[in-house]
Design brief:
single chain; about 575 residues; alpha/beta; Rossmann fold; GMP Synthetase, Chain A, domain 3; 4 domains; five-stranded antiparallel β-sheet; 17 helices; 24 strands; about 20% strand; phosphopantetheine; Amino acid adenylation domain-containing protein; Ppantetheine_attach_site; PP-bd_ACP; ANL_N_sf
């Protein structure tokens, strides 16, 4: 871990998004510590790694996370203590041995003190912790207050997971400016329709969200008349989404396109969309620098490129984080001296994004330099997934590619291409072993990776295709079709029984011709957003289905058992 000051600790916060998570983060900061958000949806192995890598000695947990936090403490090589986060006024859920008395009042932080650590996907096969300081946050908070007009009159509904840096920003910018933060319920369990109704009921005027979820809100068709601004981030914003949003937004509602890797403290660029001039096929720029930052478009020789020409985006200024915990080599590779600032010791972050500067000075995003991709709003390294797949017994090689989902604009899914160890010995891969092995690879990955990093489909190969220079030919693998479901009896979608109704809804939303009772929702291309659409359609058809049923059951037959 990037070493914090001797008297500063990194405190884990294991809580579902809501008041508990917010209390944990603010409590850690008030005590002079940094916080590390721990997503309860992550596998134990990943949580254990993060706690050990960040040097966490204390984990704050809400009531739902106490058992898992205690499991982390038991498995930790060094002593880890667990403190319960009170549920609310009058709650006395802390144990008698909880060292809450160690806190002796707020501590004023220095600019170089850590504020939080966020783990992102790592190309080396392990996640990497980004160390963000108070000096990174203060200019961002001041700028955010002015740019978005935040203050006591602001009303925001929590929409983002605090394990995602955009979610940390969403919470802190609201409560630290005196705004009102509403909690709609567990994220992933609130349908777009219910979410839209909550916006109206609570008079929400500011919405921070990803383009993916905002597209679901727009598709739900409910008017969002209370919103005075929508701040989108985490994924590319399209002109099509902006034009479609006109059907649910008031004409004077602002749409902000925010950009910023975790390494540059959430937001280092902003663009206020001119809704009157944007066309469906137009790109939406990521805009100009925010919060005293500087955006450089440089060549491979680190020289500025002329406006209009493609280069790589580098970010300089106060948002540039301290670096990656415990990874000095990677930190030196990505966080470089800034030769253009004129300030001794100034650094700039190499984003890996290909961009160009437009005539008006705004930056236009073009794509990635490497194999880092966005899936469901998460930025991840394919190398980390490949490292897990190749660690599976019986697998000798693996490559993961991201492919567009047919019929779903902007949606991406991961496909894992694997080579069994038996194939490297010159033996053919039996078809029976193929299905058995691929199922084992999926189970292996599911135990070790967050759900959004587990490939939606797997393909077995005797060998992976190579380019003339000997590298894996990713373009060729991208063209390989993912396996279709094996022939099986087709669900009678014309019937009126619950199974047939669900099959018809799944087929329509996932754009597949056939859905069988045992088909896996995620294998068919589903994700958490499409699960919410399924729930809304099922509830409209009179079925008592909620998002947990889809996410936990994953097949029609399992969902039917859960709602029986």
């Amino acid at each position: 871990m990037t070493t914090p000051p001797a008297d500063q600790a990194v405190v884990g916060v294991l809580a579902v998004p809501g008041r508990g998570a917010l209390s944990g983060m603010l409590g850690a900061l008030a005590a002079g510590a940094a916080f590390l958000p721990l997503d309860p949806k992550l596998p134990d192995s990943r949580l254990d790694f993060m706690v050990a890598d960040a040097g966490v000695r204390t984990v704050l947990a809400d009531r739902a996370g106490l058992a898992r936090a205690r499991g982390i403490a038991q498995r930790a090589a060094d002593g880890v203590r667990v403190i319960a986060i009170p549920d609310g006024a009058g709650d006395d859920s802390r144990g008698a041995d909880d060292p809450i008395a160690d806190f002796d009042g707020p501590r004023l932080a220095d600019a170089d003190d850590l504020a939080y650590v966020i783990y992102t996907s790592g190309s080396t096969g392990a996640p990497k912790g980004v160390a963000v300081t108070h000096g990174n946050l203060v200019p961002l908070m001041a700028w955010s207050t002015a740019h978005f007009g935040l203050g006591p009159g602001t009303s925001v509904v929590q929409n983002l997971n605090p394990a995602f840096d955009f979610g940390v920003w969403e919470m802190l910018t609201t409560v630290c400016t005196g705004g009102t933060l509403y909690f709609p319920g567990p994220l992933g369990e609130v349908t777009p329709g219910a979410f839209a109704r909550a916006l109206a009921e609570w008079g929400i005027d500011t919405l921070h969200t990803t383009p993916g979820f905002f597209a679901e809100l727009v598709a739900a068709g409910h008017r969002l008349d209370t919103l005075r601004q929508v701040h989108l981030g985490g994924e590319k914003v399209t002109g099509a989404l902006v034009t479609q949003a006109a059907a649910v937004l008031t004409p004077d509602c602002l749409i902000h396109n925010g950009y910023g890797p975790t390494e540059t403290a959430v937001n280092c660029a902003i663009h206020v969309v001119d809704r009157a001039r944007i066309a469906e096929g137009d790109p939406v720029p990521i805009g100009v620098a925010s919060a005293e930052n500087v955006l450089y478009v440089l060549s491979q020789e680190y020289e500025p490129v002329p406006d209009g020409e493609t280069g790589e985006l580098y970010v300089g200024g106060p948002a540039v984080a301290r670096g990656y915990g415990g990874l000095r080599g990677l930190t030196a590779e990505r966080f470089l001296p800034d030769p253009y600032s004129g300030r001794p010791g100034a650094r700039m972050y190499r984003t890996g994004d290909l961009v160009r500067r437009l005539p008006d000075g705004a930056i236009d995003y073009l794509g990635r330099v490497d194999h880092q991709v966005k899936v469901r709003g998460h930025r991840l390294e394919l190398g980390e997934i490949e490292a897990v797949l190749t660690a599976c017994p019986g697998i000798s090689a693996a490559t993961v590619v991201a492919v567009p989902v047919a019929g779903r604009s902007g949606a991406t899914r991961l496909v894992g291409h694997v080579v069994p160890a038996v194939a490297t010995a010159g033996q053919s891969m039996p078809s029976a072993l193929d299905e058995e092995l691929l199922a084992r690879v999926r189970a292996f990955a599911t135990e070790r990776l967050p759900s959004y990093m587990v490939p939606a489909a797997f393909v077995g190969h005797e060998r992976l295709p190579l380019t003339p220079n000997g590298k894996v030919d990713r373009a060729a693998l991208t063209a390989v079709p993912a396996p279709a479901p094996a022939p099986a009896p087709v669900v009678d979608i014309a019937g009126a029984d619950p199974g047939s109704v669900l099959a018809a809804i799944w087929a329509e939303i996932l754009a597949v011709p056939v859905v069988r009772p045992d088909d896996n929702f995620f294998d068919l291309g589903g994700d958490s957003l499409s699960a919410l659409r399924v729930v809304e359609a099922a509830q409209a058809a009179g079925l008592n289905v909620d998002p947990v049923d889809i996410l936990a059951g994953q097949s029609i037959e399992a969902v039917l058992e859960m709602i029986a």
